[in-house]
UniProtKB/TrEMBL annotation:
Lineage of origin: Bacteria, Bacillati, Bacillota, Bacilli, Lactobacillales
Pfam entry (one): adh_short
Similarity comment: Belongs to the short-chain dehydrogenases/reductases (SDR) family.
SMART domains: PKS_KR
Name of the protein: Short-chain dehydrogenase [Lactobacillus sp.]
GO molecular function terms attached to this record: oxidoreductase activity
Record's keyword terms, sorted: Oxidoreductase
Gene3D superfamilies per record: NAD(P)-binding Rossmann-like Domain
Domain of life: Bacteria
GO cellular component: membrane
Domain Ketoreductase positions: 7-192
Keyword hit for Oxidoreductase: yes
Length: 263
């Protein structure tokens, strides 16, 4: 089991869903956790649980990852309290499923600011600190949608595809400095994500047979820390479909628009 005792771990999007479970899993591994999300009350509750699990400090810092000032405040607080940062796990993000010709500009801009630009800025600041320290790990939660887009996910998939490309370059830039970049590309997860993405609930019902358990997924991700993994692509059936997509794009288009199109 991964031992994070004495390490400082920042988790964004930590007030609910996969982010919450990642914070709890890191605390279970002994980490001192710093939690960032927009909802202070829920974040404080998660921090309280983390302290019980880790017997170590846990700090809840309310802030929107799309705000440069909020992210700067989090990093300044980490410097003030601990003077180190060993792991960053960016789980902040949201989706809104709609046809590309119908989604409004405000929704597009917000998804890009949160899912891509915000994560990039956190990663940049973390990388600077880790380069000084000579070690560290950055984990960014992208999506299988960024590898194999389906109808009604054009904008969401684009934000995640951009993040995957960013990670691929960042990984190469930081490799020689003993800093690993792990990109996690999950399929659908049984969280509140779909309350925003698809209020009807039809999509999550349709993909329940392959939807991931957030507790088990968080444990799996934390278990990969320190092992210099490049990517984690799950579930296997979607990863296999993505690999087939690269080999046979026309067939992939058909699968993405039919077999894997549950929206």
């Amino acid at each position: 089991m991964t031992d994070l005792t004495g390490q400082v771990v920042l988790v964004t999007g930590a007030s609910s869903g996969l982010g919450e479970q990642l914070a709890l899993a890191a605390a279970t591994a002994g980490a001192t956790v710093v939690l960032m999300a927009r909802r202070q009350a829920r974040l404080t509750r998660v921090a309280d649980q983390c302290r019980i699990l880790s017997a170590a400090p846990a700090v809840a810092l309310a802030g929107d990852i799309s705000s440069v000032a909020a992210v700067d405040h989090v990093f300044a607080t980490i410097d003030e309290l601990y003077g180190r940062l060993d792991v960053v796990i960016n789980a902040a993000g949201f989706g809104y499923l709609a046809p590309a010709v119908e989604i409004d500009q405000a929704a597009m801009a917000k998804m890009l600011r949160v899912n891509t630009l915000g994560v990039m800025y956190v990663s940049q600041l973390a990388a600077k600190k880790m380069l000084t320290a000579g070690h560290g790990e950055i984990v960014n939660i992208a999506s299988m949608a960024g590898k194999m887009a389906t109808p009604k996910s054009a904008v969401y998939a684009a934000t995640k595809a951009a993040l995957i490309a960013y990670d691929n370059a960042l990984r190469l830039e930081l490799r020689a400095a003993n800093i690993n970049v792990l990109t996690v590309n999950p399929g659908p997860i049984t969280t509140d994500f779909f309350k925003t993405a698809d209020p009807t609930g039809h999509y999550l019902d349709a993909v329940s047979w392959l939807a991931l358990n957030p507790v088990k997924l968080a444990e799996q991700i934390v278990g990969k820390l320190g092992h210099h993994r490049r990517e984690l692509n799950i579930p296997w059936v979607m990863n296999a479909a993505n690999l087939g997509y690269q080999l046979a794009p026309k067939l992939g288009d058909w699968l993405a628009g039919s077999v894997f199109n549950f929206k």
